[in-house]
Amino acid sequence: MSIDAKPRAAGKPGRPKSSRQLKEVGMDRKAATQSRAATLLIAPSIIMLIIVILYPVTNAVIMSFQSDAGLNPETGLFEEGGFAGFSNYTHWLLQQCTAPGGGTMPCPPGTLGSQFWGAFGTTFYFTVVTVALETVIGFWMALIMARTFRGRGLLRAAVLVPWAIPTAVTAKLWFFIFAFQGIANAIFDSEILWTGSENPARWAIIIADVWKTTPFMALLILAGLQIIPEEVYEAAKVDGASTWQRFTQITLPLVRPALMVAILFRTLDALRMYDLPAIMTGGANGTTTLSILVVDQIRQGFNSAAALSTITFIIIFLVAFIFVRFLGANAVDAATTGGKGKNK
Amino acid sequence: MTSTTATATTTRVSLPAAPPQRRSRHRERWASARTYVSAAVIILWCLLPGYWMVVTAFRDVGFTYDSTPFFTHVTLDNFATAFSTERGNRFGQALLNSLIVSSITTLIALVIGVFAAYALARLNFAGKYLVLGFILGASMFPGVALVTPLFQLFTNLSWIGTYQALIIPNISFVLPLTIYTLTSFFREMPWELEEAARIDGCTQGQAFRKVIMPLAAPAVFTTAILAFISAWNEYLIASQLSNSATQTVTVAIASFAGSEPHQEPYTAVMAAGTIVTIPLVIMVLVFQRKIVSGLTAGAVK
What tens digit of pLDDT does each residue of A183-200 get? Predict the structure, then answer.
């Protein structure tokens, strides 16, 4: 293999691993052995992931170009659908449904087909609001957890509790808290039908989500805070920097790589939100996310659902791409070089 | 410790000629008070909803909406209701299903993932970035994109209602998590010790058994806990690809049926939730430090 000729192909050029790489220039054989060993060790995982992810997804893409089985309006028989071109995609994106006499028409309100852009909006509304709240509250929690005080252990243990509770249980718990006769209305002396109309329903879900996932965010940010050496703060203090200056000039820039990775993780997680709205409202009152729409569609037609799940996947992929490419959230870098690689 | 600082502060403050220092001491004490208040707010916010679940779980069903903030009308009936199969609920069976599905998923992911993590952490090879990127991408993959094709596939294979129909999709997110966490743990291990043991006369096998295994065991154990929790908490896939015989606890709790068709059996659901959650919470509190390092491993450092 060409590894003998170009042993440096192992590390990408420009990555700061120089000293180790220089040592390896004369170790072609060792590099080759390592490559072979690595292939053997990694192969089972890759094969497994190909079986459980790539195969189904390829299948889904193929399915999305077939039309669903249904009554043929001309013959009146139940038929397998054939090749459908992009009609499953236009069904969702342009909200075109099959007209009774053949051809297409705008999907009537109430059908799943008419709900795509609504679900799209709901998903992004949930994502933006929850991630923003979780980032701000999580940052605040992390700053508190980073301080030394008696009872810090208790605090760090307490924040793990919401994280450990299964989302399905969280959903039921908050559903009970937000019940009409529940404790939320009792405490605030209000009479809100929380899951009965759009805004309260959305906010009930947002509050439950923020409760459950802010601790995760806080722990990621805390880990980022802890790698900032204390001396930097001492030096800034000596130079007369105020608390606010120390926060904006030292903490924020230095914690940024960790913060971006945390926001990336949470955003991608929020974009596939399913459990909380599905259990708390069943998607009623403007809480249908894209994931809920896909699941609702599965029972009505695989191929159309496959197109929608492919669209959802592409949306999430695009958001991840934007994050990594333009906002410098480099999770791979963080994993391989300790987060100090590319982002300053 | 705090008390000594406090006395030191008072003596210092009582000295007459130090007004600027007094102000900074004063500010320090105020900052520490703020820390305690903030910490208390966070702790209450995190624990109170869970506390409310436990209180309700032990409360008589006739007092479901009683808002007394401590344990009143204590009864164990709700736990009996949770396990009762009278109304078509199969909570006991669901517990067993979750245990089986999560354990096997964790086991498979660990056995396969540990090799990949070792290679990613220890060996230099072409395409390392590509592999890591692929694994990371896989871990962020939306479960809903798998459910549709798998639902059709498993329906055709008549696998709906089997354990493998739940285990296989679970591997899609547990395996990447396992590899990712283990890789960052392994990267931090003192591998020089292996060399040292060899120089001291150990065979390769001995060096592995006596030095590397004990060092790696905590990392593998922590990863196993994280993998188990994420499989145990899974809902979307289980809700679509299981039937009443194989449904997991999350599905059972979400669809818990009460005596009246439109009345939510809150107390029984809270009892079921308590049963599902308490072991996790105990596990998390016992292994708190390790879990935090496992959760944040890789994302930073």
Answer: 888 888 887 888 778 889
Contacts of B149 in chain A (CB under 8 A): 56-57, 59-60, 63, 306
Average pLDDT over residues A309-316: 91
The DSSP code sequence of chain B is: -HHHHHHHHHHHHHSSS-HHHHHHHHHHHHHHHHHHHHHHHHHHHHHHHHHHHHHHHTB-GGGTT---SS--SB-SHHHHHHH--TTS--HHHHHHHHHHHHHHHHHHHHHHHHHHHHHHHH---TTHHHHHHHHHHHHT--THHHHHHHHHHHHHTT-TTSSHHHHHHHHHHHHHHHHHHHHHHHHTS-THHHHHHHHTT--HHHHIIIIIHHHHHHHHHHHHHHHHHHHHT--HHHHHH--TTT--HHHHHHT---SSTTS--HHHHHHHHHHHHHHHHHHHHHTHHHHHHHHHBTTB-
Q: Is the pLDDT at A12 greater than 60, yes or no?
A: no
Cβ contacts of B159 on chain A, cutoff 8 Å: none
Cβ separation of B254 and A168 shorter than 8 Å?
A: yes
- The pTM for the full model equals 0.84
The pLDDT score that the predictor gives to residue B23 is 65
Structural domain spans, chain B: 2-57, 88-296
**Average predicted confidence (pLDDT) for chain A:** 81
How far apart, in whole angstroms, are the C-alpha atoms of residue A259 and residue A135? 8
pLDDT for B34-87, tens place per residue?
899 999 999 999 999 999 999 999 998 888 888 888 888 888 888 988 888 877
pLDDT for position A341 = 32
Distance of CA A145 to the CA centre of its chain: 25
What are A97's strand-pairing partners? A105
Q: Count the neighbouring beta carbons within 10 Å of the beta carbon of residue B262.
A: 5
Residue A62 has pLDDT above 80, yes or no: yes
- Give the closest-approach CA distance of B111 to chain A in angstroms: 10
- For A192, the token pair is 């809100």
Q: Do A38 and B119 touch (CB under 8 A)?
A: yes
On the question of pLDDT at A21 being above 80, the answer is no
Please identify every stretch of chain B with a pLDDT value under 70, giving residue numbers as ranges: 1-23, 258-262, 298-301
CB–CB contact B148 A155 (8 Å): no
Confidence of residue A96 (pLDDT cuts 50, 70, 90): confident
* Whole-number pLDDT of residue A327: 74
Tell me whether A301 touches chain B (CB under 8 Å): no
Spatial separation of the C-alpha atoms in residues A109 and A130, rounded to whole Å: 29
> From B144, which residue of chain A is nearest by alpha-carbon distance?
A291
> Which domains are assigned to chain A?
7-58 (no CATH), 70-108 (no CATH), 115-337 (1.10.3720.10)
* B280 with A164: Cβ contact below 8 A: yes
A259 vs B20 pLDDT, higher one: A259
Bin B66: left if φ > 0, else alpha if -120 < ψ < 50, else beta: beta
Contacts B266 to A, Cβ<8 Å: 176, 179
Within 10 Å of residue B221's Cβ, how many Cβ atoms? 13
Task: Give phi and psi for A106, each to the nearest 5.
Answer: -60, 140
More confident residue, A21 or B219: B219
Q: Determine whether domain B88-296 maps to CATH 3.30.429.10.
A: no
Task: Please name the residues in contact with A25: beta carbons below 8 A apart, sequence gap of 6 or more.
Answer: A7, A8
